[in-house]
Specification:
Blueprint (H helix, E strand, L loop, with lengths): L1 E4 L10 E4 L9 E11 L1 H6 L17 E9 L11 E5 L8 E5 L3 E3 L6 H5 L2 H14 L7 E4 L5 H12 L3 E6 L2 H9 L4 E4 L5 H8 L7 E4 L5 H7 L6 E4 L13 H6 L2 E4 L2 H7 L1 H16 L7 E6 L3 H9 L6 E5 L2
Parallel strand pairs: 8-9, 8-11, 9-10, 11-12, 12-13, 14-15
Antiparallel strand pairs: 1-2, 3-4, 3-6, 3-15, 4-5, 5-7
Protein name: NADPH:quinone oxidoreductase family protein
Pfam family, one: ADH_N
Organism: Lampropedia aestuarii
Length: about 325
């Protein structure tokens, strides 16, 4: 097998494409031949030693991938050799093969392409858990999605619309706003050229959004929270902008609003039955055409450095997927 190996997590430039022994699955594991793997923001952080999960060195990055089971370990009965699966394991995806716990694999129906499957679990599970479980989003409510043209942002737009909500998508360019409109956003805000608070006031008749979905953090957090509706829910997804914002605690008091943390990875481990039910609902929505990953494009697995460069420039719209020939 071949894989991108991280021996020193000081940046993308230290990743090397190497030939490695093909592993054999241990008890409870399967060996997956990888067809496609998506690039997520944590995949950038983890090779810079900035992510909360710090794997032992050396490791192969790539948190999310899809492929075919080539071997099964002892005790695995629900998956078979030749079965198509997707998995989110945190590491291992940027290569030709990997082993993964069978319980982390999502069986794929034939209609689910490898590219879509590789771009599915992290963004859609995060957004579903955020909006519906943690945010208790109801039909008819208004959602503000920050960073709306990215992977989790585009997933959040589709899930909110499937739930019957009104979506205001905020992004950093007119081109990105146009993409958000194409996938269902009702209104858009270009927060590079528009004042976020004034635009929200105009679009909600002064009420503000009921739910704010924020994977960005940084400078827009306080402005968005100051605009939130009474009894609003502010969903803390991540900090793609870099700085972790600090909110004055008088704001949730005055707004009667909640700051809600969203950590889907911990949810999937602590509440596996609820997580499995959620993934099944998402797979059903995919089959019904309600949701579909927005693709920035595909690149050969060997072009990982170029893919990281594109993500680092914040040029990715939706998900960028690496494929093995």
């Amino acid at each position: 097998m071949h894989a991108w190996l991280c021996t020193n997590p000081t940046g993308v430039e230290n990743l090397q494409w190497q030939e490695l022994p093909t592993p054999q699955p241990a008890k409870g594991e399967v060996l997956v031949r990888i067809h496609a793997a998506s690039l997520n923001f944590p995949d950038l952080l983890i090779v810079q030693n900035k992510y909360q999960m710090k794997p032992d060195l050396p490791f192969v990055p790539g948190s999310e991938y899809a492929g075919v089971v080539e071997a099964v370990g002892e005790g695995v009965t629900h998956l078979q050799v030749g079965q198509r699966v997707a998995a989110l394991n945190g590491t291992g995806g940027f290569g030709t093969h990997t082993t993964v716990a069978a319980k982390l694999c999502m069986p794929l129906p034939d209609a689910f392409s490898y590219e879509d499957a590789a771009a599915f679990i992290m963004t859609y599970a995060t957004s579903h858990h955020a909006l519906i479980d943690r945010g208790a989003l109801q039909a008819g409510e208004t959602v503000l999605v920050l960073g709306a043209a990215g992977g989790v942002g585009t997933a959040a737009i589709q899930i909110a619309k499937a739930q019957g909500a009104k979506v205001i998508a905020a992004a950093s360019s007119d081109d990105k706003c146009a993409l958000c409109k194409e996938i269902g956003a009702d209104e858009t805000i270009n927060y590079q050229t528009q004042d976020l608070r004034e635009a929200l006031k105009a679009l909600t008749n002064g009420k503000g959004p009921d739910v704010v979905y924020d994977p960005v953090g940084g400078d827009y957090t306080e402005a968005a929270f100051r605009s939130i509706a009474w009894r609003g829910r502010y969903l803390v997804i991540g900090f793609a902008a870099g700085p972790i914002p600090a909110l004055p605690l008088n704001l949730p008091l005055l707004k009667g609003a909640s700051i809600v943390g969203v950590f889907w990875g911990a949810f999937s481990q602590k509440e596996p039955a609820a997580n499995a039910a959620m993934l099944q609902e998402l797979a059903t929505w995919y089959a019904e055409g309600k949701i579909k990953p927005v693709m920035d494009g595909t690149m050969p697995m060997r072009d990982l450095h170029k893919a990281y460069e594109r993500m680092g420039q914040r040029a990715v719209r939706g998900k960028l997927v690496l494929v093995n020939a």
